[in-house]
Amino acid sequence: MRVLQVCHKPSFPPVEGGAIAMYNLAKGIKNSGHHIDVIAMNTHKQYCDSNTLKYPLDFCETYYLVDVDIRIKPFSAFKNLFSSRSYNIERFQNDEFEKLLFDLIENSHYDAIILESLFSTHYVDKLNKEYGGKLILRSHNVEFQIWENLSLRVKNPLKKWYLNLLAKRLKTYEFETINKVDSIACISQDDLADFKSFNCKTNLYHLKFGIDFESLKYNFDSSSPQLKIYHVGSMNWIPHQEAFKWFFDHVWPRIKSFENMKVFLAGAFMPAWIDSQKNQKLEVVSGYVNGLEYMKDKHILIVPSFSGSGIRIKIIEAMASGKVVLTNSNGTIGIDVKINENILVSDSASEWAEKIQELETNRQKLEDISKKAFEYARQNHNYIQIAKEFMMTLESRKQKPTNIE
């Protein structure tokens, strides 16, 4: 089959969770014997310098980048208030991107188009008119739920009103769009169940997140006397900022005096209020780092999480490298893990501190969880096998299919 993957942000280089998910799916499709092209919106958050791309790329046939400015603009946001459109979606509309997309469709005769996330669906009505192949929405999250959850924790009345408006309009758009595609490939079973409850009439498919185990090694470091706790990720997303506000308000005061422990935080757009707290127990790196290299000598990935659906891709990636993961219950959404066996989960700040303190002294338990985490990822998230099964499903469908789970 010949496939076109439409991305709402660059999938290369794969520097954060969403990009990794898109990159590994494309690579899996190519390595399972199919042809795939990628067209991506080059946004300011994960900007890719096209001059750094080296062809041929190992994960696709051809990679197209179009600069798209999705930054929030006060005047555009204000003008949007007097319409009924979702501003979250409206920011991703771009004439140059649209022209290239439909030129590719006209000239390349794709068997299937994968729209990565709801933010790549701005052209779905035109696609239904002008494209005759299979149209798949790959859902990374139930998007409106993120904004609903954010609004629940906001106290400022005006900000709460605006977040509720964004959530309401996004929900309307999402409910309309899910019935305009042939299939929805959900990244988690939880999201699949949510879409079914929304009276979704299109096909639903559970497309797991895939890991390239050739690029990852089990690297638990038992020799270090210091327990190294880390997180790598861009901090320009509101749910990340609110989660780490909780961590620094409630967890950090309980653990910063632990003798043989240190926290390492790295990522782009690091807020000044985090950077200002760095000391001998807290190392902060603001800017891009290679996540796989950065985590090699670390032991525990912390993922404070209160908003969002989908899955936390960084969690799966860390487990595949033999890292112990400590997260909130929201962080395990979509991951069929065994709590306190291959992952540590709690919504209590005091329990976070207790678990960290126990692992600081009990290195055997740390290593046992590490090995079980690696085994879980190896058995459930091999990217080539996942892509093969997905493509076999697409090939078997000559018409719009009935629901499968």
Description of the structure:
The chain is an alpha/beta fold. Helix 1 (17-31) packs across helix 15 (383-395), helix 9 (238-255) crosses helix 13 (349-361) and helix 12 packs across helix 14 (363-380). The model is unreliable at 398-405 (pLDDT under 50). It folds into two domains: 2-210 and 382-395, Glycogen Phosphorylase B (Rossmann fold), CATH 3.40.50.2000; 227-380, Rossmann fold. 43% of the residues are buried. The chain has helices at 17-31, 74-80, 87-90, 95-108, 124-130, 143-152, 157-177, 189-197, 238-255, 272-275, 291-294, 313-320, 349-361, 363-380, 383-395; strands at residues 2-7, 35-42, 62-67, 112-116, 134-139, 183-186, 203-206, 227-232, 261-267, 282-286, 300-303, 324-327, 344-345. It is built from 15 helices and 13 strands. The longest helix is centred in the middle third of the chain and has 21 residues, at 157-177.
How is the main sheet built? 7 strands, parallel
**Any guess at the CATH architecture of the largest domain?**
3-Layer(aba) Sandwich
**What is the alpha-carbon Rg in Å?**
21 Å
Broad shape:
globular
Helix and strand pattern? EHEEHHHEHEHHEHEEHEHEHEHEEHHH
Across the major sheet, the strand order is 3-2-1-4-5-6-7
Share of helix, binned:
40-55%
CATH homology superfamily name of the largest domain: Glycogen Phosphorylase B
Strand percent estimate? 15-25%
Q: What is the overall pLDDT average? A: 89
